[in-house]
Design brief:
Blueprint (H helix, E strand, L loop, with lengths): L1 E10 L5 H11 L3 E6 L5 E7 L1 H12 L7 E9 L9 E3 L1
Parallel strand pairs: 2-5
Antiparallel strand pairs: 1-3, 1-4, 2-3
């Protein structure tokens, strides 16, 4: 299992970004979480197999949720102390 953290900038709050992200992660069998940051960005923590993570990144690169407008994606691999068991909105 691999894990990646994303910080997403753009029009990503108030447009259903977190809900659609949770839905996409569940569709791909990924675990982790998503939250709004006070600076207007959204942070995603996602863990899963290489295929699922690759498909999730492709989804983000293609614009992500339908009403959002992603302007920047910061990506960083990480190793959690304890792997998450589901995907939650934080």
């Amino acid at each position: 299992m691999s894990c990646t953290s994303y910080v997403i900038s753009g029009r990503v709050q108030g447009v259903g970004f977190r809900w659609e992200t949770r839905s996409k992660a569940a569709e791909l069998g990924l675990t982790g979480g998503v939250r709004n940051n006070s600076d207007g960005t959204v942070q995603i923590f996602v863990c899963g197999d290489d295929w699922g993570l690759s498909e999730f990144k492709k989804w983000l690169d293609s614009g992500g949720p339908s009403y959002s407008k992603i302007s920047e994606i910061e990506e960083e691999k990480y190793k959690p102390d304890q792997p998450p068991v589901n995907f939650v909105i934080l």
